[in-house]
Design goal:
About 65% of the residues lie in helices and about 5% in strands. It is built from five helices and two strands; from the N terminus they run ββααααα. Strands 1-2 form a two-stranded antiparallel sheet.
């Protein structure tokens, strides 16, 4: 009927409707022992990764990435321009791409959210469709800005 394994109370398909009489203190001890064996919260690996999930995470980081890039007016522009001019072309394109990506993502995804504010494209099919369109436009825009 009931077995004690690893300090936990487990059932083995009871054949009758009998119960075990325990004190409140014993029941609480069993509960505490069971809770120690359980994870605190589900791990992220149990969820299927989705576009909306990654999009929200990147939007969070992109907003923080663009803030200092806009606010660095105190840097010596002449020295930065001279240093940047000395880099090889692939390095320049890579640096410009890393800087352009958060800006393009934040800009295009903001427009996507403005569309949602009009209560348009809110079903899951349209959310994914606009997400993939947004990612394509972000990729093209980022490459275009990096090649300037």
């Amino acid at each position: 009927m009931f077995e004690h394994r690893d300090g936990l109370l487990s059932t083995t398909a009871p054949t009758s409707g009998s119960t075990i009489n325990t004190t409140d203190a014993d029941a609480y001890k069993i509960l505490v022992a069971q809770r120690k064996k359980r994870p605190i919260a589900p791990h992220l690996s149990i969820y299927q990764p989705q576009l909306t999930w990654y999009s929200a995470i990147y939007a969070y980081f992109a907003s923080y990435a663009t803030t200092p890039l806009v606010g660095w007016q105190g840097l010596d522009t002449a020295n930065l321009a001279e240093m940047f001019g000395s880099f090889l072309e692939p390095v320049k394109v890579g640096i410009k791409g890393v800087i352009a990506l958060p800006f393009t993502y934040h800009s295009w995804n903001s427009l996507r959210h403005l569309v949602w504010d009009t209560t348009t494209a809110l079903n899951i099919k349209d959310v994914y469709r606009t997400g993939y369109i947004c990612l394509a436009v972000i990729a093209v825009t980022t490459v275009w800005l990096a090649m300037l």
